[in-house]
Structure formats: C-alpha cells, structure tokens
C-alpha cells in the first residue's frame, strides 16, 4: 500500500464505479487530484512525480473504474492541457482543464494551414482586435477531431508588420461559434480522419487569449514539444504497437516466410523494442528535445514494419479492406488491414513535424549545429514571398 | 513485467566521473594498474572475494568510458569475460588465485554460441583478445574450463585490426591445468561480455558523434561552417537518434545482467543494435571529417577499427538476431 493506492481506495469508496455515472466518477477523480498527479493541486493533480501516475492508473483499473478514453481526447490531453497549464490564467485553467480531462469537452488544434505546414510560423489566419474581442478569419487544415470538438487551440496572426514569429498570438477558439465551418478532408486511406476548418469573422473574446499578444510562438512551442512526446513516448508493453500486429501476422503465416523477410522483421523488432526502452528512459524526465528522436524513430519503424507486412501477405497484400470515406474518432491501426496500416503510416513522418524538420530541430537544439541561413527571419511577415 | 531501470544512478555517475578523470589524466603503461587501484576492474566481484560487490550496471558505465577513450587496457578479456567465468565457477582457492591477477578468457574474440575448446590442453586458439596482458588463461578444453598459467602457453601476438585491443594466437602442448567449471561458465562469460560490450559500443559511438559535431561546427567551407549544411545536419541527427535507441538497449542489457530478468533477450537485442550503431558512428566520423579523417594522425581511425572489431566480437549483429528469433517467437 502506498499513498497513491490509499487515495485511490478513498476515491473508490466514496464513488463506487459500479453505481456511479461515468462522467460523475471522472469529475470526482479529477477533484481528488488523481487525474494527472503531476499537475498542481486543485487542477486534477497533487504536484506529485509523473511516475506515480502509473500506480494510480493500475489501482483504478483494478477497481473497475472507467477511464477517460484518452485516445478520443488525445489533442486535449497531450497538447492543449500542458499549454493551458504553462501559459493560462488561473481562470482559464479552472474553466478548461476539468472538462478537458473528463472528455466532456473535446479539443482540436487549429495550427497548420494550406500555406503554412513545416513553416508554421508563416501562417496567415488573421486575428484583428475589435473591442473586447478578436475577429478571426482564415483557413486551417489537417485538423483531427474538429467535427467533434468543443474547443480549439488556435494560432493566429495579430501583427503582419513584424517578422513572422513576432506577430503571432495564441487563442482558445469556441468551435460552436458562428463562422466556424468544418469540412472533411479525405486521405490516401479513403478515410476522412481530418478536417479543413474555415474561419470567417469568428469572434474570440480576449479573455480566451493564452499568453501575451505577440507571444504566440513561444506558447505554441510548449504545445509542439508535448505533441512530439505524445506521439512517440506513450508507455506501451513489449510488442504493443505496430510491431505486435506484424509479429502476429508473421506467426499466423508460416508458409509465407522468407529468409529476407525474417532478418528484416527481427531487425525491426529490435528497433521497436529499443524505441520502447528509450521511451521508458524519456518518461523519467520532462519533455525535451529528445521527444523529437522518439517521433523520428517511431515513424521510420512503423513505416518499415507496415511495408513488410504487406509484402509478407503476398496475394492478400494485393487487397484492401475498405475504401469507404469513414469518419473515425481516432486512428485504428490494429482494427484495419495491412494495406490501411501501410498507407496510414505514411503520415507518421509528416504529421506533427515532418521527419526533415525533426532532424533540423535535433541538429540545432540537441547537437548545437549552426542554423541554415534564413532569408525570412528579419523581414516583416507581409513582405515575405508567398 | 516490471519496467527496467534505464537511468544512470548518482553512484553510477560518480563512478563515470572518476573513471573519466583518470582516463583524461593518464595514458599508456600505468593506466591498467591505476584502474585496478581504483577498484573498477573488480566491480562485480563480491567483497568476500576481494572485489567491490557492485553489479553489471556499474561495469557497463566503466565500459562506456573505456569505449569513449578506446583505452588499450585488457578490461573486456579480463575484468569482464574472465571475471564472469570465474564468478560462475564458484568460490575455490583456484578461483581466488585467478581473481587476484589478470586472468584472460582464452576464446576467439569472435565467439558466440557453441565454444569448441582444445583437447587435452593441446592445440591452438586464434584471435584471443587481451592475451598479452594475461598472467593466467581460462581455457575451454574437454568440456570444461581450465586454469592454465600463462608461462605454460605460447602467446603469439598478431597484427590486429584494432590495435587498442590486440589479439594473439595461443598454442598449448599438453599444458598443465586445473579444471574450474563446465562450459556453462564460458557461455555465461560470453553472455555477460556481449551485454557489457554494448555499453562500450555506446561509448565509442558517443565519442564519434561528439567529435564530429565539434568538428563540423568549426570547419568552414563555401564561407559557412559545414555543420550548417542540411545534408550534414540530417545525417548527424539520424546518428543521434540511433544513439538514443542504442543507449536504451545497452542500459537495458546492463540492468538485465544485474537483475537476471530476460537477460538473453536483452543482451542479443543490445548487441544486434549497438554494434551496428557504433560502426555507423565511426564511419560517419571518418566521412564527415573529410581528408583529416583518413589520416593516421587523427584519432578517428582508432574508433573505426575498434567499432569494426567490436561488430565481430562476441557475435555479429546477424548472429544475435538468429539467437533472438526463437526467444521472441519469431521463427524463420
């Protein structure tokens, strides 16, 4: 018995998971500080070490408690929450974090634009001050969960007359506000997991600004660091991800094995397991540039494994399970066919920072190599070629 | 399965600092004696047998530092391989005698899997690492492990790919020897050696990366540091990523050797990855140094030779994948 299991026992005693409504239980768990124990007291945490969370989760799971379906609310948990915690006002933290964590309010991320992918800081969505509000107009893309979201974290341009990084401001945007138009974006898998979001004169109250005017890039960096950790650093058991799926396909298909595929598979199993172990090392510290290595390695391994599985399946590798334009709430690698996994994994080296951008980040921030000469650094944003 | 401890403890970091300080201050003939004096050559030996009573996690930290300096000391052949075999043999007067000196395991450095010894302590064993430093040899012979005085063995050093860990050929003609243990002691030694070697490989790779990064930051061509070119930066970023994976795998092997949990998987996992990463790091080091990297004067070649020799040592990456496959239920 530890302090953590004692606290879980007290929570479960006061709110029996078998008879308590799911949302009510999750709210009680948040209020008991057991949502994310490393968060401050009063905001779902106990200012405890991150490692204690595992013990809490295990004890709650053993008690039959419902979880907050983290896959459905990954953007809120992984990106919005750490940013709100780091840069939000006391009111914003109190208002947003509880329903975010319980899943009662889904979050999405309005960052990327058709003209600003890797060069995110060049984004063009305009936010103009109007009294106590900001009026936002622009187009965002690659927005997962936008069609289910109550809130968005939004990066907008508040000053076009200064260099691109200096003219950005970070907002929380109400996805039910007038002028927000969400449209599905179909991908190479056939699904429309993402959206395009058109913003036309959307009014955002100044009280929903996160951080200072013009300080949006610094705030966004908190989000992006956490995104990379969220993508590459989840705790998983051995063979917990793509490697487990491909290993099972291998075990189920003894007649299709070749020496070439065998050596490649074992080598990839090794890399996947080493990545899992590196994740264990990373989780014992706080998110830093090492998260970039996790994501970079994850993308390469997932792509190589999913490609190998299609080859292994031979004549079955020629088929595809379903080209229907579905609207999944989260990516389901395991429930789909090998062809889907292969195609979807192509996004791993593009979404959340392309592998090329990650290599540049590692080279400059981890290794301390000199930056590329940059033509756009000191020019006002409005004078940049587009 | 509980999670392994893959961090470096404070004690381990202190150990690293003292080894590094010694390696920076000393070079050449007195180094091995200084390392013995510091106690880092007897870390896994119980205090009752005259050692430090530490574990393989600590041995691995020393191996990292020795790899980072490609120090020409018989650490692998003696303090790792021979010591592991002796500790497996149990507490006897002969084992105590051997532990008090510089014993060396008499197997080809490339050994992995089945070891065929000499018969009747007559015959030869090729490419034995650190043999020149030995006062006694642990010799696989007639299905057992024998203790043989170095004076009773003909030791012929040969030109070695890695001159910082030279190999020699041994010849026995009806040498007198004492049986210490069965061949399982040799298998244990190879397992420990392969696991610790992974940390040495991480040390080699880290030196190569650090040295290359420092060089491309100050080397100017076309009016720019060459380290500002994306083609160079991205290669080094990839190498750093490989090192993140290799370090996790090597730490895991050291932890598994200490806890005894999942050891065979952890060791072959680490060897199949770290050997390759060290070679790649050393090859990148030579390439990204350009012409100076090809000179005898620059130290890069010593790391390349150590990395390449280590790739063969105690099983190639391919052999370790072959070992691993049935252990993880991925049969060919």
Automatic annotation (TrEMBL), chain A:
Record has Oxidoreductase as a keyword: yes
What does the record list as coiled-coil region(s)?
none
Record-linked InterPro entries: Acyl-CoA_Oxase/DH_mid-dom, Acyl-CoA_Oxase/DH_mid-dom_sf, AcylCo_DH-like_C, AcylCo_DH/oxidase_C, AcylCoA_DH/ox_N, AcylCoA_DH/ox_N_sf, AcylCoA_DH/oxidase_NM_dom_sf, Mycobact_Acyl-CoA_DH
What's the superkingdom here? Answer: Bacteria
- Which residue ranges does the record assign to the Acyl-CoA oxidase/dehydrogenase middle domain? 108-192
Question: Would you name any one GO CC term?
Answer: plasma membrane
Transmembrane intervals: none
Q: Which keywords belong to this entry?
A: FAD, Flavoprotein, Oxidoreductase
Q: Which residues form the Acyl-CoA dehydrogenase/oxidase N-terminal domain?
A: 7-104
Q: Which GO terms describe its molecular function?
A: flavin adenine dinucleotide binding; oxidoreductase activity, acting on the CH-CH group of donors
The yes or no answer to whether the keyword Heme is present is: no
Give the family from UniProt.
Belongs to the acyl-CoA dehydrogenase family.
Q: What is this protein called?
A: Alkylation response protein AidB-like acyl-CoA dehydrogenase
Q: What species is this protein from?
A: Actinokineospora auranticolor
TrEMBL record, chain B:
Where do the Acyl-CoA dehydrogenase/oxidase N-terminal domain residues begin and end?
28-91
Residues crossing the lipid bilayer are: none
Q: Please give one Gene Ontology molecular function term for this protein.
A: flavin adenine dinucleotide binding
Record-linked Gene3D superfamilies: Acyl-CoA dehydrogenase/oxidase, N-terminal domain, Butyryl-CoA Dehydrogenase, subunit A, domain 3
The protein's required cofactors? FAD
InterPro entries according to UniProt: AcylCo_DH-like_C (IPR036250), AcylCo_DH/oxidase_C (IPR009075), AcylCoA_DH/ox_N (IPR013786), AcylCoA_DH/ox_N_sf (IPR037069), AcylCoA_DH/oxidase_NM_dom_sf (IPR009100)
Q: Which SUPFAM superfamilies is this protein grouped with? A: Acyl-CoA dehydrogenase C-terminal domain-like, Acyl-CoA dehydrogenase NM domain-like
**Which Pfam families does UniProt cross-reference here?**
Acyl-CoA_dh_1, Acyl-CoA_dh_N
The chain positions of domain Acyl-CoA dehydrogenase/oxidase C-terminal read: 182-325
Q: Which UniProt keywords apply?
A: FAD, Flavoprotein, Oxidoreductase
Protein family according to the UniProt entry: Belongs to the acyl-CoA dehydrogenase family.
| Protein name as catalogued | Alkylation response protein AidB-like acyl-CoA dehydrogenase
Source species, please? Actinokineospora auranticolor
């Amino acid at each position: 018995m530890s302090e953590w299991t004692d606290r879980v026992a007290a929570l479960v005693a006061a709110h029996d998971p078998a008879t308590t409504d799911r949302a009510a239980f999750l709210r009680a768990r948040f209020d008991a500080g057991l949502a994310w124990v490393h968060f401050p007291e009063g905001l779902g945490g106990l200012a405890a070490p991150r490692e204690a969370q595992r013990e809490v989760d295990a004890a709650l799971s053993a008690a039959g408690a419902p979880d907050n379906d983290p896959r459905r609310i990954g953007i809120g948990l992984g990106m919005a929450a750490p940013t709100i915690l780091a840069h939000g006002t006391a009111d914003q933290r109190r208002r947003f974090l509880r329903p975010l964590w319980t899943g009662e309010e889904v979050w999405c991320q309005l960052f990327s634009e058709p003209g600003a992918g890797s060069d995110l800081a060049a984004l063009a969505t305009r936010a103009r001050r109007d009294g106590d509000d900001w009026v936002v107009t622009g187009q965002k893309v690659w927005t997962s969960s936008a069609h289910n979201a109550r809130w968005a974290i939004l990066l907008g341009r508040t000053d076009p007359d200064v260099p691109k990084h200096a003219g950005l401001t970070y907002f929380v945007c109400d996805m039910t506000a007038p002028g927000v138009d969400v449209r599905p974006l179909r991908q190479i898998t056939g699904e429309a997991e993402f959206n395009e979001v058109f913003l036309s004169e959307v009014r955002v109250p100044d009280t929903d600004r996160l951080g200072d005017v013009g300080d949006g890039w610094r705030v966004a960096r908190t989000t992006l660091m956490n995104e990379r950790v969220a993508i590459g650093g989840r705790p998983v058991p051995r063979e917990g991800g793509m490697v487990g799926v491909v290993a099972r396909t291998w075990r189920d298909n003894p007649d299709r094995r070749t020496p070439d595929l065998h050596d490649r598979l074992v080598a990839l199993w090794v890399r996947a397991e080493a990545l899992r172990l590196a994740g264990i090392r990373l989780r014992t510290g706080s998110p830093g540039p090492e998260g970039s290595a996790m994501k970079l390695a994850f993308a390469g391994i997932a792509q190589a494994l999913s490609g190998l599985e299609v080859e292994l399946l031979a004549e079955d590798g020629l088929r595809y399970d379903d080209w229907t334009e579905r609207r999944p709430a989260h990516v389901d690698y395991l429930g789909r066919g090998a062809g889907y996994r292969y195609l979807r994994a192509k996004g791993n080296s593009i979404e959340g920072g392309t592998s090329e951008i990650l290599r540049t980040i590692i080279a400059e921030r981890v290794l301390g190599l000199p930056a590329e000469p940059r033509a756009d650094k000191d020019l006002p944003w409005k004078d940049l070629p587009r | 399965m509980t999670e392994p401890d893959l961090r470096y403890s404070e004690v381990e970091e202190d150990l690293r600092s003292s080894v590094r300080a010694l390696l920076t201050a000393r070079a050449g003939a007195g180094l091995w004696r200084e390392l013995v004096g510091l106690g880092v050559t007897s870390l896994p030996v119980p205090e009752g047998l005259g050692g430090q009573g530490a574990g393989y996690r600590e041995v691995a930290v020393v191996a990292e530092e020795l790899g980072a300096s490609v120090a020409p000391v018989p650490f692998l052949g003696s303090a790792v391989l021979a010591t592991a075999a002796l500790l497996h043999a149990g507490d006897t007067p002969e084992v105590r005698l051997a532990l008090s000196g510089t014993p060396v395991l008499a197997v080809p450095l490339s050994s992995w899997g089945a070891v065929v010894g000499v018969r009747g302590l007559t015959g030869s064993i090729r490419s034995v690492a650190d043999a020149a430093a030995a006062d006694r040899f642990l010799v696989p012979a007639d299905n057992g492990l024998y203790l043989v005085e170095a004076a009773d063995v003909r030791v012929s050093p040969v030109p070695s790919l890695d001159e910082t860990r030279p190999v020699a050929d041994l010849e026995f003609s009806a040498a007198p020897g004492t049986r210490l243990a069965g061949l399982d002691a040799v298998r244990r030694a190879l397992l420990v050696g392969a696991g610790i070697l992974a940390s040495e490989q991480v040390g080699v790779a880290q030196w190569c990366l650090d040295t290359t990064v420092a060089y491309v930051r100050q080397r100017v061509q076309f009016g720019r540091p060459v380290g500002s070119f994306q083609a160079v930066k991205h290669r080094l970023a990839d190498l750093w990523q490989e090192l993140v994976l290799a370090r996790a795998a090597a730490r895991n092997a050291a932890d598994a050797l200490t806890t005894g949990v999942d050891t065979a998987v952890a060791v072959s996992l680490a060897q199949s990855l770290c050997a390759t990463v060290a070679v790649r790091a050393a090859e990148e080091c030579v390439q990204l140094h350009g012409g100076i990297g090809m000179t005898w004067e620059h130290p890069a070649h010593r790391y390349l030779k150590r990395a390449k020799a280590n790739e063969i040592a105690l099983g190639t990456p391919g052999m370790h994948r072959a070992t691993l496959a049935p252990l993880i239920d991925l049969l060919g």
